[in-house]
Amino acid sequence: MVFLVDANLGRKFTRLLNNAGYEAAFINDILKNASDEEILAVAERQKQVIITSDKDFGELIFKIGGIQQE
Questions:
Q1: How buried is 67 (Cβ within 10 angstroms: 0-12 exposed, 13-18 middle, 19+ buried)?
Q2: From residue 33, how far is each of 7, 18, 39, 41, 65 by CA, in Å?
Q3: Per-residue pLDDT of the chain in tens (70 residues, 90 and over written 9)
Q4: pTM for this structure?
């Protein structure tokens, strides 16, 4: 499982995950100033789990009708 860390949690949080043995990427290292929709698209394309403290993601997923399942 690979995690995509949202900008609101920061690079330090990403490093903590990596140091704990998890594979994590920081969104700003991939795409600076990404919108929630762009972050969701990156995570879906790269098969990553988003970690965020932004409550708008739940609403966004509800609006678009869920995440594609394989």
A1: exposed
A2: 8, 22, 10, 14, 24
A3: 899 999 999 999 999 999 999 999 999 999 999 988 899 889 989 999 999 988 776 676 666 665 554 4
A4: 0.81
What is the DSSP pairing of strand 23-26 with strand 48-51?
A: unpaired
Name the 3-class secondary structure at 64: helix
Q: Which amino acid is at 38?
A: E
The residue written with tokens 């394309």 in the block is: 45
DSSP 34: -
| b/e 5-31 (16+ beta carbons within 10 angstroms → b) | bbbebeeebbeebeeeeeebbbbeeee
Instruction: Kindly state the DSSP code that residue 10 receives in the 8-state scheme.
Output: H
